[in-house]
């Protein structure tokens, strides 16, 4: 097990492994997402209150889920990078962050688009949307800090510390915003599965989440390949790969 | 005040490589330094003397290899290593809002509080007795450098790191640095310094590490 | 190591450059005074907005003060000496943040009483307003210090610091303003104050590690 772990952390090995896995994952994600969309947009019955408008949850909920999932992945990778000084882990954080920000943005946009037919306004200070907004700011902070350092390794470690501080804060932010929301009696949105929801409605939702995860995995592996090449550009194996003597 | 003579002290580097962005400052650098010896880092501007000295103190990070103090890699006994070293960098580490005397007292508070007689003695040695109670902001660059030199003397560190110690010092100041270093070496201490000019440290052995021209 | 001597040194330095340290306090007063100009001076309206206005102004003011937390030390080389001293860096940063709060955060707490009066905040609830700031501003100091440590070596640190730190301060703002608001309406204030106290405990115990780590990264090159 440990040997395998060690081998995985070796950049040339990982580079080739990622190159082999990424296309499979990409195709799988495409198929799963198409299946999920078919299930969500055609097979699932319209909601008895919201009509066809509810179908945006098939993008919104998976995006929101991914936005948090990716932040957790980032923080875990950051911790591994800081504790075991594994360079590859920092590359994972750096590769995942822009994707996480994109999913967060997508969750916000779909959430506000859904808000229009529901409450007649594009933005309500709903607890979940507000948390998503703060999460987007956290991603911005990480990206800004990571890019501000001239030396990439310093940027990696600084970003990792920020990501860890952020992950400690995410639950606190979430619960404080929820508390604030009940205090001010804001409108509440029922995203996601309710107890009375039909299986034909929530099964496509899970399929979509799986599809998004596969897409994330494929995309991160591709980005990781680029990160590895740029970080290891002085090493013999990259020079060889690039066809230099 | 300075260390007991002890030839058992060892600072060593093994297979050290330091990169600065896309540039390799050194690779496979190795040396071994003992008590009573000095190490001179040489090289033109931009060759990486400062980066290397920071790696040796533990402030900077190396990309390969390791620095060993008493045979132990730095990461393992870093508090012990920090207690054994003193560092004088480009910036003096002198607060302009404090007088030299206050600066030394504060620097001492980071270790354990020095007696005020020791502070007076260190100040006298660097020729600052007269301006000991003026704010450093009102002193010349050379006098601030002297304050930092006094801090070096006040510390009980055996291993000194000096980055361009002669910067902004006059002829008398340069002689002072020579004298202080010799006293330290005579007491069995070790010195790692980076300068353009050579320091007159005979009869003590001075090892040299030459860093290449920036590529 | 002599902690008391270090705190005394920081206080002495702070006293000698008190003009610089007054900036956040003046900023706090001016920002608070801008709101009536923008929103109108109707006493009922001001009273309703007072908790939020004072809290937002205090948050921004304490953030402004944080940029200078390690900057001077970085520029004159004292920070290198701090990192290379045998003392634990986490402890040194804890001392530093608390001293800095004493000279920049505490004045905000005291001044908030005056600002409450300006904004027609009820007199008998002023203790809760000041209490919420007393618990909350040290948390802001610690969060700001994390950002200051991570950005101390960067040229654009002044721009970057708020982006890093402001999202993290959301819970402090929510509970702080809620406490002040509930006091005004005669509702129980224990819950938000307890939350603030809990966050303070968390900040005191965890933040020094992040701050020390940030300083080490910043001084690497």
Give the secondary structure arrangement, pairings included.
The complex is a heterotrimer of chains A (245), B (215) and C (221).
Chain A: H1 2-8, H2 11-43, H3 57-84, H4 87-119, H5 127-148, H6 152-183, H7 199-231, H8 236-241
Chain B: E1 10-20, E2 23-34, E3 38-42, H1 49-57, E4 64-69, E5 72-73, H2 78-84, E6 85-88, H3 100-110, H4 116-125, H5 141-154, E7 159-163, H6 171-186, E8 190-194, E9 206-210
Parallel strand pairs in B: 3-8, 3-9, 6-7, 7-8
Antiparallel strand pairs in B: 1-2, 1-4, 4-5
Helix pairs in contact in B: 3-4, 3-5, 4-5
Chain C: H1 3-16, H2 18-39, H3 43-66, H4 71-76, H5 78-84, H6 89-118, H7 126-151, H8 157-165, H9 170-184, H10 190-218
How does this model look, in words?
The complex is a heterotrimer of chains A (245), B (215) and C (221). With 245 residues, chain A is an all-alpha fold. Chain A has 8 helices and no strands. The longest helix of chain A is centred in the N-terminal third of the chain and has 33 residues, at 11-43. The mean pLDDT of chain A is 86. Chain B has one domain (10-209): Rossmann fold, CATH 3.40.50.300. Chain B contains 6 helices and 9 strands; from the N terminus they run βββαββαβαααβαββ. In chain B, α6 (171-186) links the parallel β7 and β8. Chain C has one domain. Chain C has 10 helices and no strands. Chain C starts with a helix and ends with a helix. At the B-C interface, α2, β6 and α3 of B face α1 and α5 of C.
Concise description?
Chain A has helices spanning 2-8, 11-43, 57-84, 87-119, 127-148, 152-183, 199-231, 236-241.
Q: What characteristic shape of chain C results from the CA principal axes?
A: elongated
Question: Which percent range fits the helix content of chain A?
Answer: over 70%
Order of helices and strands of chain A: HHHHHHHH
Major sheet of chain C: none
What fold name stands as the CATH topology of chain A?
A: Four Helix Bundle (Hemerythrin (Met), subunit A)
Quantity of strands of chain A, as a count = 0
> What gyration radius of chain A follows from the Cα positions, in whole Å?
20 Å
């Amino acid at each position: 097990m440990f040997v395998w772990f060690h081998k995985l952390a070796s950049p040339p090995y990982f580079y080739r492994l990622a190159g082999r896995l990424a296309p499979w994952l990409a195709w799988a994600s495409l198929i799963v997402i198409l299946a999920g969309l078919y299930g969500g947009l055609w097979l699932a019955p319209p909601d008895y209150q919201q009509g066809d408008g509810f179908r945006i949850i098939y993008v919104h909920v998976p995006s929101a889920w991914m936005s948090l999932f990716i932040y957790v992945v980032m923080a875990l990778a950051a911790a591994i990078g800081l504790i075991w000084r594994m360079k590859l882990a920092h590359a994972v954080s750096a590769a995942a962050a822009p994707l996480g920000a994109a999913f967060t943005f997508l969750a916000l946009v779909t959430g506000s688009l859904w808000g229009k037919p529901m409450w007649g306004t594009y933005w309500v200070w709903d607890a979940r949307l507000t948390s998503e907004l703060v999460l987007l700011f956290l991603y911005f902070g990480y990206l800004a800090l990571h890019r501000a350092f001239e030396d990439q390794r310093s940027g990696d470690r600084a970003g990792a510390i920020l990501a860890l501080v952020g992950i400690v804060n995410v639950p606190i932010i979430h619960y404080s915003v929820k508390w604030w929301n009940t205090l001010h009696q804001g409108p509440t949105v029922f995203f996601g599965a309710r107890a009375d929801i039909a299986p034909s409605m929530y099964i496509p939702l899970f399929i979509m989440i799986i599809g998004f995860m596969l897409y994330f995995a494929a995309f991160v592996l591709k980005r990781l390949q680029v990160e590895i090449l740029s970080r290891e550009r002085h090493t013999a194996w990259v020079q060889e790969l690039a066809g230099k003597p | 005040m300075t260390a007991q003579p002890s030839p058992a002290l060892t600072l060593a580097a093994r297979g050290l490589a330091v990169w600065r962005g896309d540039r390799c400052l050194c690779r496979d650098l190795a040396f071994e330094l003992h008590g009573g010896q000095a190490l001179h880092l040489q090289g033109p501007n931009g060759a990486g003397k400062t980066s290397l000295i920071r790696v040796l103190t533990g402030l900077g990070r190396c990309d390969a290899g390791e620095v060993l103090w008493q045979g132990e890699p730095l990461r393992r006994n870093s508090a012990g290593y920090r207690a054994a070293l003193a560092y004088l960098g480009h910036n003096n580490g002198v607060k302009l809002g404090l007088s030299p005397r206050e600066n030394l007292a504060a620097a001492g508070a980071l270790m354990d509080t020095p007696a005020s007689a020791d502070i007076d003695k260190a100040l006298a040695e660097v020729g600052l007795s007269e301006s000991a109670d003026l704010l450093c902001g009102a002193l010349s660059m050379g006098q601030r450098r002297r304050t930092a030199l006094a801090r070096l003397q006040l510390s009980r560190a055996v291993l000194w790191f000096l980055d361009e110690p002669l910067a902004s010092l006059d002829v008398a100041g340069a002689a002072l640095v020579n004298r202080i270093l010799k006293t330290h070496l005579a007491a069995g201490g070790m010195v790692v310094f980076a300068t353009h000019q050579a320091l007159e440290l005979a009869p003590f052995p001075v090892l040299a590490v030459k860093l290449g021209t920036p590529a | 190591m002599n902690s008391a001597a270090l705190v005394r040194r920081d206080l002495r330095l702070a006293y000698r450059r008190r003009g610089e340290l007054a900036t956040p306090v003046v900023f706090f007063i001016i920002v608070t005074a801008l709101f009536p100009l923008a929103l109108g001076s109707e006493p009922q309206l001001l009273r309703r907005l007072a908790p939020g206005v004072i809290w937002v102004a205090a948050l921004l003011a304490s953030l402004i003060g944080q940029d200078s937390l390690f900057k001077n030390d970085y520029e004159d080389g004292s920070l290198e000496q701090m990192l290379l001293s045998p003392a634990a860096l986490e402890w040194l940063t804890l001392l530093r943040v608390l001293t800095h709060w004493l000279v920049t955060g505490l004045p905000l707490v005291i001044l908030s009483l005056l600002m409450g009066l300006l904004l027609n905040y009820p007199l008998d609830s002023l203790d809760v307003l000041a209490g919420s700031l007393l618990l909350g501003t040290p948390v802001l100091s610690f969060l700001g210090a994390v950002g200051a440590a991570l950005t101390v070596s960067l040229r654009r640190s002044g721009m970057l610091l708020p982006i890093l730190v402001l999202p993290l301060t959301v819970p402090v703002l929510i509970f702080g303003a809620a406490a002040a608001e509930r006091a005004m309406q005669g509702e129980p204030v224990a819950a938000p104050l307890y939350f603030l106290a809990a966050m303070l405990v968390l900040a005191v115990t965890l933040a020094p590690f992040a701050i020390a780590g940030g300083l080490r990264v910043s001084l690497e090159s």
